[in-house]
Amino acid sequence: MAPRPTAFEVSFPGEAARARIHDSSERGGHKRLAETGVGSLREDKRLRQERDIAAPRHYNPPADLVPESTDLILEGEDDEDDETPKPVRLLLDFVIFDTRHDSVTCRLDASEAGRKFEATGLALAAFVNEQDEDEVDGEGMRIRISDVRTWTIDYTKPGDPLYIETPHAFYILESPAHIYRATWDTFIRRHRISQLVLSSALSEPRQDPGDFLYYFTTTWDDISEQYFTESDLRSSTPAIKDAISRCKARDGKRLLGTTVICWLFADPSQNQVTYDPTQRQSESRLSGNPDLAVLQPRNQNPTHVTPLIASLAANLFRERLIVVGPPPPRKDRAELQQEKEAEKDKRDRLFYLLSRVRQQRRVVRLQKVRASRQVRMDQPVLRVDDVEYSIGDVLIIPISDDAGSTNPPPDFPDGPDKVPPDARITDYFWFAVLVHLHPDREKMHVRWLHHSSKTILGEISDTRECFLTDICDDVPLQMVQGKVNIRYIPTTPREKDLGVHEYFYKFTYKAGDGSFHTITPSDLPIPPHSRNPFNDCAGCRAEQLPQEHMEWTKINCGIHYIGADFHVHDYVLLRNEGEDEESRGEKGGKTRPAHVGLITQIVLPPPARMRRGQQPAIEVKMLGRIGDIADKAPPDLGMIKDERHLYVTDEYRNFPLSYLLGRCLVEHKRRIPDFDLWIASSPKHFFVQYAAPRLAVQSWADVRQLRQAEVDACPPCYDAEMRRMKELSDFLGDMEEKPLRVLDPFAGVGAFGMGLEESGVVRMTYAIEISPSAAKTLRRNSSHTTVYNQCSNKVLQWAVKRHAGIHVDRLHSIGDSQPLPNPPMPGEIDMIVAGFPCQPHSRLNMFQRADDRKSNLILNLLSWVDFLRPRFCYFENVRGFLSFNLMTYQHSRYTVKGGIEMGGLKFLVRVLLAMNYQVRFTLLQAGHYGSPQTRVRFFLVAASNDQHLPSFPQPTHDFPPPDNLDIKTPNGDVLHWLRMTRGTAPHPAVTVQDAISDLLRFDWRHPTLDGEPPNVRRQLAERARTIPQFNVDLLSQHAGPELRGSNVKYECGPKTGYQLWCRGGARQGEERAVKDLQHFTRVLKPATVQRVVKIPLRPRADYRSLPRNLQEWLADNPYSANARQGFKPGLYGRIDGESFFSTTVTNMEPTAKQRWVLHPDCKRTVTVRELARSQGFPDWFMFYALQDSVKTMHRQIGNAVPWPVSMALGRELRDSLFQHWKDQKNETALNEDD
User: Which residues lie within the region annotated Disordered (predicted)?
Assistant: First the structure.
């Protein structure tokens, strides 16, 4: 009898089996590789073919290649970088050749004496930080390398690239040129196999050789374009032995003790490895910087996942995932046979349905159905041929132009032999619920269901799952082909719970925005207790809603329109068509917020014109924005440009009803009891203190103080809003006692979570961050957050095992090696937020690798969700995430093609739905929410099926740069969520000067002033009297004033509401002191400083204004990428203060892609604090970096989610929770009354 398994063996059977491998190996449980008897003839033939195709070829390098030199700088590279002595680059389309032997192509391991290796190829800047890479558009530069000194590869890290080193740089060899491909393939293949074996052996030292062999033979070989074979492994043993000798001695000894290597070298004579110190692999090229070292692919841990995520990721990701917990059970032979029989049944069913499509149906009504009569669900109402149908049955209907499909109908095959082998019923037929039979027409009313493959999920869908839609139709009776059993099940059922031909649905799908929602009883096709479902059809209601929304009806003292009541003396927002731009000048024309007015009269058209469709008009008393006239106010008033501050006028205007956007609330500031709550309650809350005769104010003499009694309001609407604010205050009081507990597994400096905390309903209790500097920054700024400076994969493994009762060694912090506290457990986290890492998708999409591990951290994130099951999830990523395809193939060793289009998004949604989460996603523009920059990012919000699904915030600021933010799906649908019409947002956009003009002005001191003409020296000396100058000293960590402690000071008082918030920004009732303003720049080389101070002080000035003798290679050389792009603007670019920051990224140097980094009116680049202001960080937020590296601080800022965007998302979450809280209170009150 077998011994009883331990708890460890039950929970982690894979690891338990590997722990027993020594015993089974010693008992002869595995064949020696040498004894497997795999035919050697095939192998010998392949080796002969390799030798033939890899014969040396003469190579003539093109004459126009740029020679590699010390001065060579590629686009995206930072020539000021002090983090590594040499830049790291990618080399694509490369050729290695020997100039001492007739320039013949050769392998890097050619060992004959007297060789001199050179190389050519397309060089691009390589980035450790994926955010850097995503923000660069570089096309690369074709170069010639005259001295290839050494090559290295780390065999212990899966996927780690092969590097060559030259006197000037390191190059990652990514893809060979066509002429060199055969030579390269024969060289690199043996090293890739060695790397695969050794990295796997080190990651799992007690690995079962049988498991490894399965892993090896299911790994795709991009070179041979087939899976590796056992023969490949056997023939590579000499190369593997050589690779071990190249490893560090410590790693080599560990390898020789692993089960896989012991099995592989079963012959004791093969187990002797001689270590060659001259061949030892080099240390990391960035080992001196822990913040970058942890991001290197070679230092990334394998992706750890839960069993559920592993099963859903099967055949979609190439990495060998580490399953934490019991792995998904393997199907036995009986189950596989059952699946095969089920597939045959489904195919037979499809053939039968297709054979009936062109046949005439025989339709018989079994009873009359009237809308006024109660319907019995179990009584048949229709017979088609020999099948009877009842109300509520799910019908099978051929896809046609009029059957709810937005795409062309399929071609129906006229025989079984023309049906594709992978075809399914849902490729040719729709499903619809029978709701009603029309008594006087040969039609029926149906409610459509979407099969999961017909949604945004596409190929990555549960083939058993359907989704209810809000689309209904009248369909001819003749279209009925049969019926199918589709069950409403609130949670994902197990596979064995459904029959072969059964489906289920649990969510509604909104095709307009691609969102998925919990089904309420009234949403069901046949609502409970409905007398007649036709009268209660939710599809009909949804169809009528937009029309009813735009229709108006007269009410007492007002009008009902766009779902709201409007009365005389209501304050309203009205669409701004730009009619005031000419009078307000250029500045007013750049941003165009909605008009604000007080309704004074509602003018209804005469009945005759009303019948012809004429709309009412509304007369409003206009209110102006103090920000437009603040510069006219006397200095002693301290007037600032506050987006909430309005002034009342005596100017009246008439607007068509269609200009009406909604109500807002305006109150005299002295009558607002809790000003902070007033502002936080809604972006549509304003205050007034002044009045003027008209909107166009010529002088402050025209402005007067406004008495409180002069502020009108509609009493019922005002009182209702006051009651709402009182309830909101009570709700926030409850949430303060028990906020949502948040985990961020990829926290950065915590801006996402801390911005959400401003809502008053969440608290970031746990955060994981792998970068030591970012973790320290987060810990110092959020003292209530438990921060884990560790890899999220390792913390997940620790958490899952600890929860299972398995002893695990405590993890230690990467930065200071301190022991970490216990990780969070299920029930301790209510919400997960994450700006999850993902491989770059914009600039290097054509050079990405199909097996890039950075892409797979999404699996770790979803595993955290699976393990903790929070109530809510908020995820963020770059816009390019929408272009992330799954299961691409390595088309030419460096370009990837094919795969599942938008697979990353589809998989993310698919997994969340499988875990019973509602989901919606969109693109958000940071400028729409009060950030002074243009920055578009992808966001997704998920909520468990028992919660309200929060909305995304509508734009609150009128941001001029055009972008409709649509998401185009592979099937042609266009998803959109936000209202993007200009002139409809309540506030003006925040400009650069709105954000930073109160910060201390200073210049860099000219490094070679003596060489300037006398008039230039006089001008600079005159300027220095009012604007201080600071040396840019290469021995200092930064350049600029030291504004710490009591020495914190500003140029002036706050000039705008944005500046006021940044200087005192904290949650309501909290105070945070500014301890270090960090208003300094990075130290750059004297030549760069000289160029910066010579750029004219005018908006959008750049390198093109510099004299020829100051131009640098990247800007002026005809071989440079900039020259090939027509000398485009931006290098050394000066920001337009009345415009907006470009996307704040992690590389903020004058020659980086985000080239517009010079201060609007100072002779320097922007400071750390100015950059932080562009992202909305409050001034009390301090950035910490190892060795006080300003570049590291730039990375922390550029990687963050803009604080105002997080606040806007938090506001929507708060409102959703508030509504849920009110619903529960009302339900409790009703139950008490009963």
Answer: 14-66
